[in-house]
Design brief:
- The chain is mainly β and 80 residues long.
- It has one domain.
- The protein contains no helices and three strands.
- The chain has a three-stranded antiparallel beta sheet, with no helix packed on it.
- Pfam families: ZF-HD_dimer.
- Keywords: Cytoplasm, Metal-binding, Zinc, Zinc-finger.
Length: 80
């Protein structure tokens, strides 16, 4: 799932123009430890977050591949 984040910065001076920074946010491999309750460490191998529903719904926050919440996937931010 790719999400665009636009940050507008406006300096106090009237002469300065607004600076636009576009950041692309990707959620990659799942980091959920499925063996934490027995004291071990095991991940499921999910390599990329795929939303389970349309953006803006609660289903969009769970991964269609592994069923984990989006917060378990590593967040990657790229500035353009």
């Amino acid at each position: 799932m790719k999400k665009r984040q636009v940050v507008m910065r406006n300096e106090g001076s009237e002469r300065s123009s607004a600076t636009q920074v576009v950041r692309i946010v990707r959620y990659v491999e799942c980091r959920k430890n499925h063996a934490a309750n027995i004291g071990g460490y095991a991940v499921d191998g999910c390599r990329e977050f795929m939303a389970g529903g349309e953006q803006g719904t609660t289903a969009a926050l769970s991964c269609a591949a592994c069923g984990c919440h989006r917060n378990f996937h590593r967040r990657e931010v790229v500035d353009k």
